[in-house]
Amino acid sequence: MSGTYLGMPSFPRAAASSTRDMRLRGNLRHATHTIRAKRAQAVEELGDWAQLRAAGAALKNRTLRHLDHYLEQLETAVTGAGGQVHWARDAEEANRIVADLVRETGESDVVKVKSMATQETGLNEALAKAGISAYETDLAELIVQLGDDLPSHILVPAIHRNRDQIRDIFREKMGSWGRAAPKNLSDDPAELAEAARLHLREKFLNAKVGISGANFMVAETGTLVVVESEGNGRMCLTLPETLISVVGIEKIVPTWQDLEVFLQTLPRSSTAERMNPYTSTWTGTTDEDGPSAFHLVLLDNGRTDTLADTVGRQALRCIRCSACLNVCPVYERAGGHAYGSPYPGPIGAILTPQLRGMQSELDASLPYASSLCGACYEVCPVAIDIPEVLVHLRERVVEGGTATVRGQRTTIKPAKGHAAERAVMRAARWTFEHPRAMRTGQRIASRTRRLTPRRLPLPGPGRAWSDSRDIPRPAPESFRDWWRRTRGSGSAGSGREGGDAR
Amino acid sequence: MRVALFITCVNDTLYPRTGQAVVTLLERLGVEVGFPEGQSCCGQPQFNTGYRKEAVPLARRYADVFRDYDHVVVPSGSCAAMVRDNYPRIDAEATQGAVARTYELTEFLVDVLGVTDVGAYYPHTVTYHPTCHGLRMLGLGDRPRRLLEAVKGLRLVELEGAEECCGFGGTFAVKNADVSAAMGADKARHIEETDAEAVCTVDNSCLMHIGGTLTRRGAATRPVHIAEILAGTEEARL
Ligand code: SF4
């Protein structure tokens, strides 16, 4: 891995190598299965989970429908509280705004709270180009940064690493980023945490500028909210003189009361905790307390385009709890990097192609990175019907259609490489529309059944199947023929042959 | 009560025994079944791969072919789910009636006929894999298990990670062959660990994937559709 998602291969190709990485598979299996069981328990404790889930979905839906209104309300409130609001249409604009803001402070080092929005925009790389070093302070994010790696999970970006690997990274890399790790560092979690604490403390005490994301923005008061487990985020939010928060525009809720729902569903879904350890809220600036300058960068980057799609827009309800990743059997085998985006797993498979469009081979392959088993939908605390959106996006991949791109309704062409498949699907439909032709086909298959080998030596779909599974042989007599032979052609009172004679 | 069978394309061509078992079972329970020959495929492979337009005529044909029946019984959780969950998204108006009348086999037995003991005999250890669409889209709940538990001679053994997808997923098995195979291997391993003689599901398509993986591994456990277990009796073993 090397710090960028650009030019990554399609999902199946990336997954082909990760499924063979047994250490990765072991790390992921252990981590996801542990949290999976705990989540189920934490959710079961609440008698009104179904209502909370429905309330969360309804709240987000209503807010999204009136997004323009709430964003303006938020801007007024933030400005009134002494903050400044900046609007960023895309990643580039957001990065430029942030780099300029940092430059104005005269600083060249910034500390960061883990933030998905800035991963999405590639802010760290953009800042580096501008001569500014950004230090990640979330423990897992620190591991990713030191290892010159990419995050592979929404909540636990270094989930693909085990203790051994983390110790090696700390020993080798910490020194070049600041305070070095002790020479005799072991893989004991307490020792690893202590090494990170000392390394980070140095950063916090020197930092003049902090950069954060936010889990929620409250429109009525202009308040931003971060929930976290380590307390490192709170340090970033309170110690620096200047705080810059980069937040996706969909993270808004109308009132404080709305938080009541999400502060119950989010921790239980993500870390299986009843309440998350640190909930920090900040509103503009306050004299003598916390940062004296506050900037809010509101990021669109494909969100209003997503909002324009009536089926796909439900992805914007996501509160990034990561429950869908933890139950996903595909994520568990393929690993987070295969998704080529800061948003891996089921939510990544529907969010990334909507935010980025489906021009690249990778993005066009993401809607297919699912067996449609529905486990993600079942656990999602805001009831995003992920399978529904996957199928909807698949249609856009193979058939094209209308979509909104940068605010314009556009007709999209089907993605390349589906012509043969499309022809097969059409031919199949014709056959199914003519059951008599289908029966002929079945008879041929039955008569030649012994010719169907259990393994196929040729490339193609059959090969993909028969590499690990035996191919079933057509039966000597189809059900249809058996029915005819034993019951005659009568279909117990219905002469309907449909389009048989056509 | 006019009942029609919908024998899905996989059943029809590859696993006709399942359809025959459904006929045997339902007739034993006093149900007269019909098989309208105009039926074909539910359109799931097309719909789930993104070819919604190709699925439209198939959905309408389904609604048309089964119009005159009180109930349609489908020995497949995933095809029943296609009808009930996705037809309303394809053409709500044209398929309305058919959607309401369609039952997966175990639902039909438990909810419509009101039986859990169907008088079956199957002297083997069996483990049960609840397929995703039956479990999550149809909400079959414990219906299949209740039916299996009432079978004479059958010993039901627990399957680890039972509710996890086997990795079939229709075209997923081909488009993402590596991940699908890895999922199938884990499922097969858990099945082997039960030492059961048979693994049972409500879906032949998942069973095709699971069975193909098991035989490739040289496992002793064989795949069997629930209808084939329920159809056997002490007098007439299947
Ligand atoms: S899609 Fe749902 S389950 Fe997945 S991260 Fe978002 S809120 Fe959580």
TrEMBL record, chain A:
* UniProt-listed GO biological process terms: lactate metabolic process
The keyword Cell inner membrane is assigned to this record: no
Ranges for the 4Fe-4S ferredoxin-type domain?
A: 315-384
Check the record and name the Gene3D superfamilies matching this protein.
Alpha-helical ferredoxin, NagB/RpiA/CoA transferase-like
Which portions of the chain have biased composition (kind: Basic and acidic residues)?
466-484
**Do you know which PROSITE patterns this protein is assigned to?**
4FE4S_FER_1
Using the UniProt annotation, give all residue ranges assigned to the region (Disordered): 453-502
Q: What keywords appear on the UniProt entry?
A: 4Fe-4S, Electron transport, Iron, Iron-sulfur, Metal-binding, Repeat, Transport
Q: Does the keyword Transcription apply?
A: no
Q: Which residues form a coiled coil?
A: none
Q: Which domain of life is it from?
A: Bacteria
Q: Which residue numbers delimit the Lactate utilization protein B C-terminal domain? A: 393-485
Q: Which residue intervals are annotated with compositional bias (Low complexity) in the record?
A: 454-463
One Pfam family matching this protein: Fer4_8
Which residue range or ranges hold the LUD domain? 71-297
Q: Which GO terms describe its molecular function?
A: 4 iron, 4 sulfur cluster binding; metal ion binding
Note the PANTHER family from the entry.
LACTATE UTILIZATION PROTEIN B
**Protein name listed in UniProt:** Iron-sulfur cluster-binding protein
Q: Which organism is it from?
A: Streptomyces bathyalis
UniProtKB/TrEMBL annotation, chain B:
The identity of this protein, by name, is: (Fe-S)-binding protein
> Where would I find the Cysteine-rich domain in this sequence?
3-83, 126-210
Domain of life according to the entry:
Bacteria
Q: Which organism is it from?
A: Streptomyces bathyalis
PANTHER family per record: LACTATE UTILIZATION PROTEIN A (PTHR30296:SF0), UNCHARACTERIZED PROTEIN YKGE (PTHR30296)
| GO function terms (MF aspect) | oxidoreductase activity
Where are the membrane-spanning stretches? none
Q: Kindly list the GO CC terms recorded for this protein.
A: cytosol
Read off the Pfam families from this record: CCG
